[in-house]
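agent> Task received from the user: take the single chain below, predict its 3D structure, and emit structure tokens. No templates, no multimer pairing.
agent> Plan: (1) validate residues, (2) run structure prediction, (3) serialize to tokens, (4) report one or two observations.
agent> Step 1 OK, no nonstandard residues flagged.
tool_call: predict_structure(input=
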Amino acid sequence: MADRTDAQTGASAGKPATAGAAMPMRLSGLERLYRQSGLFGWQLKGRQRDSLRPGLQDPWQGNAQRGADIMAYRTAPAASDTAHAGFAWLRDLRAEGGVEARSRARDLITEWIDANQAWRLPDWRPDLMGERLAIIAMNYGWYGDSADEAFQSRLAQTVEMQLRCLAMDWRRMRSIDQQIGALRGLALAEAALGGEGARIEALQDMLFPKLRAAIHDDGGHVSRMPDRHIGLMRQLVEFRMATSLAGIDGSAISDSIVRMGAVARMWRHGDGRLAHFNGGGGVSAGTAEETLLRAGVRGKAVQQAPYSGFLRMGSGRTVVIMDAGDMVRGDTVKSETVTGDADLIAGSGTLGFEMSVGPTQLVVNSGQMMTDQTLRRVMCSTAAHSTLGLDNQNSSSPRDGRFASISGVEVGEAPGGLLAIGSHDGFERSHGILHHRKLYLKTGGSNLRGADHLEYTGAPGEIPNLAVIRFHLHPKVTAAMLANGSVLMKIRGSRVGWTFKADGAVTEIDNSVYFEDGVRQASQQIVLKAVVSDIRTTGSHEIRWAFTRGAQ
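)
tool_result: status=success, residues=552
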């Protein structure tokens, strides 16, 4: 996957890759033909406001080095036509700063206007228009307020035309996230053009039903994807800026941001990064911190997000984050809310967890969405998460109509530490097996003990053969087998090692892969294998394991 900078992702940071062949906008061939005519261009024209006003300030940082490269003509403003159309490069130039950067920004904007006098794709796609209008409006005080009247007038004219087109098209986007992104672009453009408060208020009224569909009551994104969660948070922060400039009440948006921030905090490790559940890993620690800071979210991380389905335990410097939620199902979350094949398999890491110690992550999930559909399936599979799989099958399989349902979820204090438990029936239909997992974190964080219990329910299905539990290790962790069958782990830069031991399974070490910010890294994984072909006779099988700090 191509490396991406935070400046390129901008307000859409964390948005997982969508299939390149899929058209995210509903538009017939006849409609496309009409839009390329002069009649449609005439339809977009109307009253024109003289210029934008500079009252907004972009809350997101650009990449100063990339801005310098653009200034020196060492690189194009963006790597693709789609990225160029989003105008995230404007942030990079702002980060580089200086009078020459302002002039270069105005030149690039003028070039884009010259090339887009008439409607065309991808530049006029609603999600890109929403992002572009937002960035144009929020950065106007830097590049536009000091420009000559001709530039200001021409920019206002193109913003007006895009605003009218976006007002017609935003509902055509298949994803509610993209619809919300378009609405925030409309709100910011209206606010920058000095639109009446009633206009912004009407857009806010359109936003609320979309938000109710996009986030759970506990504040978690319905996709259960940390990256998409952060992307939506950033869009809401921007929308709130439009309400502030227009002088209308944006407290309801603030309430949504606060709830989303609480869930975002529970996903964060000691190094500031978000957990890699369901293809995460595209949001840097800096972007996560910047988002929470601009959102104004403070306070301790919550221990449980019951609707989103995540648990968190923390003691000493050790943090454990567990996926204890149902799979995102296509029949309960319609395609207009969650799009793309990868989204429909989000949740195959059921009862998986991540573990960090201070600024270092120890146990992880592989993470990161891929643009290739096959790779996306792999990154969302059970095997790519630190959890249990059975006979090389995912805990959920939409193709087979098999979806893991969570039950018995609890988290809280236990004698001498904290306990998290949960069960799922993802293998009941295929094998007649329930999976129960218990995680116990000792006070002080020096020991994490787990138990994976497989229970035969008597239901028909395949006779199970091999249960495999994987613990993917962070690239900074090196693992080696000891003579007694346990595993010694060394964390780069730390004097204290960790050991792992298990009972009820054979322990092995294998290679793994880890993705962070679009970069693939080699890593290792601890693999437990247990033959369970006699479980219909014995009724159950339990595998116990433990991570212990400093023990040999």
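agent> Step 4: summary for the user.
The first strand starts at residue 304 and ends at 305.
agent> Done.
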